[in-house]
Automatic annotation (TrEMBL):
The keyword Transmembrane applies. Pfam families: Ammonium_transp (PF00909). GO terms for biological process: ammonium homeostasis. Coiled coil: none annotated. Keywords: Ammonia transport, Membrane, Transmembrane, Transmembrane helix, Transport. The chain crosses the membrane at residues 71-91, 103-126, 172-190, 197-218, 238-256. It comes from Pyrodinium bahamense. It is found in: Membrane. It is a multi-pass membrane protein. One of its GO terms (molecular function) is ammonium channel activity. This is Ammonium transporter AmtB-like domain-containing protein. GO terms for cellular component: plasma membrane. PANTHER family: AMMONIUM TRANSPORTER (PTHR11730). Residues 71-293 form the Ammonium transporter AmtB-like domain.
Amino acid sequence: DTEIMERIAAMRKLVEADHKQLEHMEGALRKLADDAVAVETVQPGDSIYGDEPETVLYSSMESNQGALDHMWLILCGALVMIMQAGFAMMASGLCRVKSVQSCLVINLADLAMTTIGWFCVGYAFAYGGPFDPNTTFKKHTILGTEGFAGEGFVTRRDDGQYEPNMQIGRWFFEWASCCVAGTIVAGGVLERISWPGILIFSLFFSAVIYPLIAAATWGRGFLATIHDTGYFDFGGSGVIHFTGGLAALMGAIIAGPRKKRFQDSYWERMTEYPERFDPHSLPLVVLGTFILW
């Protein structure tokens, strides 16, 4: 009858709609399968270093991965560099008013000399190879001998093009860590060191002293070989702060106290009014503390 025919027509429409939906899903699955096959046919070596006309220079995945890796290292290095502002505020607040300008300029000079030393030889000593291919530790265990003055930051292909790598990003991040250690030393000898002294020390610290510690630890040197997992110090307390703090302590011992900071005898300290050495700006000290925190 008429009711049965209407139900049959409605069922036929539902079946046709389901059939169209299945065809759409099958098309989407075929497209995904074709994309997967296309990705598998592009080998990592061919996509980056392929010199043939039909090869792809960079796949989208490799391009995004390289950009994100560099972005992450730049962001982390910039956050570490913000500590320079914290050290500058704290040191300038702790010193006397007449030494504020000298304090800030010394921080800038320390940063400049540290950059020169780290770029020329420091990074190569600390993180350069050669490495043992079986253990990934340094072959020489003490210092690296590769990567001086930016060597290996980019890779030159046979066709004359240059391929980027992660060395320059890592150099930037580790440079920021080296600068923090050097600034700790500059703050430890504040108002007690001359211009030539801080320039020479900053260059030597970033080229020799800090790289020795970094090579033995983060650079996979002899201290990292104690355990198969290497050396772990995510906060840098044993590399950055211990090295910088110990160097600052030795500098303070060698330089001695500031002139007129202590009188020669107990009687003079009790009877004579000494020069004021109190911090001239506690707000700067607190601001620097928050930035470092």
